[in-house]
Task: structure prediction
Amino acid sequence: MNRSIAAALLALLPASVPAQKPVPRLYLAPELTIAARQLNTAGNGGANSKGMIYVGPDGRILYTMSYYGDVRFFDSLGKTMPVKVTLADREGEIGWIEHAGWLGSMFWISDPRFKQVVLLDGGGKIVKTMSYPTWVYPHWADRRKYPLFASMTVFGVYADSSLLVRPERPRTLLDTPGFDKTASHLVRIDKDGAVKRLIATFDDDDGNLWLRGAGRSEHVMQAPVVSRSFWKVSGDGKRIVFVKPGTTAADSGTFRVTSLNENGDTVFSRRYPMPVVRVNKKSVDSALATVKAFGDNTAEDIRAKLAQKIPEFRSFVAGLVAGRDQSTWVMLRSMNDTSKTQSALILDERGEPLATVDVSEFVQPLVVDRTHLWGTDRLKLSVVRMRLQATAPPPDTTTVPVSERL
Result:
């Protein structure tokens, strides 16, 4: 862990957070690299920070560099498998990937282009397709709790053909006093679109302010300081994890992690320490002073709306990864604004801290468990698997040819 963060976690521990045992520091060591040249051969052109990785129960690695790129398969040793799933082909059966994961040994893809969920076997062949339901709707007994929804985003697929979805575009036909229109919702639905149960309700505000100008034009402004919350669903859909930084005087110096199971039951909800640093009011005022009017919105109105999104205290939470073994990695940025290195606090399935580990600024963590990290190396344009160990590995002195960085 970055020394400044480690010191702050010890020195600035709020009294309201239960004392925790010292958390061991571990190190990431390279274990497997699927190099840019190999990815080029596979037709992907090398890894990038926006690529997607999915790790199967048998350790195989699926990679695509975009929502529309081919999905290539590599075995657990990094050898290219004779399997390719083609996306966005005019004559193909799959449009593109929005989200994907695992149902046992089968790989599922949510495909919003063709409005379907596709299940693939280990050889990349389509086993089953499930059309998106036309509507997400409540059972009659819950008609006052939920409206109808005209669309959805799929985040999980289960053995009973039910889906974990975020319903969207509500259409209210009846009064629904039990439904919060300002919040985001995760629900389990059956194959026909009926809501089986509510999994979570949460605020998905990312600090953006959407403004409408003349006609239909829109413009997005972001508050000069934001305190983002994050949420992730594990690849098998069995854990839904939320992290919310404390931003007020009452919960400053902490962030809360809440983990739910696939039925929406709370597995744990705990706070963990982070540095206590007030937002610099002078810098905020200076940034807000540059805001100009847009459309019918005056500069004063925009400043006031942006000011409501600015927290009292800075957040050092930078991201979240839900582990394939029900662990959780919370990514933390350094207190030093010039540092690009992040650290991760690794939690077990009950929320107990297992370790802290530094993560290179060039490595994008995409899949994790309590012993490994899979991700993309932006410097070498490669897919990497790294193992956690108790000792620091030798420094990497490998020189990357310019041709492999391009």
